[in-house]
Amino acid sequence: MTIRILVADDHPIFRDGLVKSLEETGDFRVVATAASAEEAVLLADQKHPDIALLDLSMPGGGLSAVRKISAEGTVKHIAMLTVSEEDENVADALRFGAIAYILKGVSARELRNVLTGVAKGEPHVSPALASKVLTFMSQADQNKPASPVDDLTKREEDILRLVAKGLSNKEVAADLGLQEKTIKHYMTVIMGKLHARNRVEAALIAHKAWRDEE
C-alpha cells in the first residue's frame, strides 16, 4: 500500500530532493508540499495524509505545526526531519504529538525505512538523541490528578476511548454519528480537563488511567 505523505520544509532545493527520494521506489506518494507551518496545517486538513513530515525551523515554527495538526487529528502520524539536536526541541516535538524525530543527514534509504515504520505507528528517534528522549520520558508532571479521567462526561469518555484507539476526529465522528467539528470541540474540552497538550498525550493519560482501574 502506498503511504501518503505531506512534506513541509521552507528550502525548495532540499524539499524537491526529499520528494524525489521518497517517491522513487513507489512506496510513498507525496500528496502535498508546504513551506510554512500555516501552510502545513492547512494542507493537512485538506489532504489527511498518513504522515506529515515537518521541518523544525520553517516559518511559523515546526513545533507550532505539530501542536495544531495533532490537536486537529488531521494526520495519522507526525514526524520531524530537522538538524536540531537541542534537548528542548526533541522533548517538545514528542510532547506535542510527533512520534518520530529524525536528523537531517540520514540516507534516503534509511529515511524511507523509518517512515515505513512510522506509518505503522512505530516511534523513532535518531540514535544520537536516545538519551535525551529517556530523560524526557522520565519526567513526570506532578500537577496531574491521580485519576484525571474522572471529570469526563460519558460522551467525552466515549470520544477519548476511540481517540485512544488511534481513530482520527473524522473517524470518531462517523462512529458516533456526530460532525467532525463537534469532535474537535469535544477534544479541546477533553484536553483541557486532562491538562494534556495534544491528542497523543490525552490518549496516553487515558491508557494509563483505565489500565490502573482494571
TrEMBL record:
Which GO biological process entries does UniProt record here?
phosphorelay signal transduction system; regulation of DNA-templated transcription
Specify whether Iron is a keyword of the entry: no
Which GO MF term does the entry hold, naming one? DNA binding
Kindly list the positions at which 4-aspartylphosphate occurs in this protein. Answer: 55
What residue stretches are annotated with the HTH luxR-type domain? 145-210
DNA-binding is among the record's keywords: yes
Q: Which residues form the signal peptide?
A: none
Q: Which keywords does this chain's UniProt record carry? A: DNA-binding, Phosphoprotein
Response regulatory domain: residues covered: 4-119
Q: Which PANTHER family match?
A: TWO-COMPONENT RESPONSE REGULATOR
What this protein is called in its record is Response regulator transcription factor
- Can you name the source organism? Roseobacter insulae
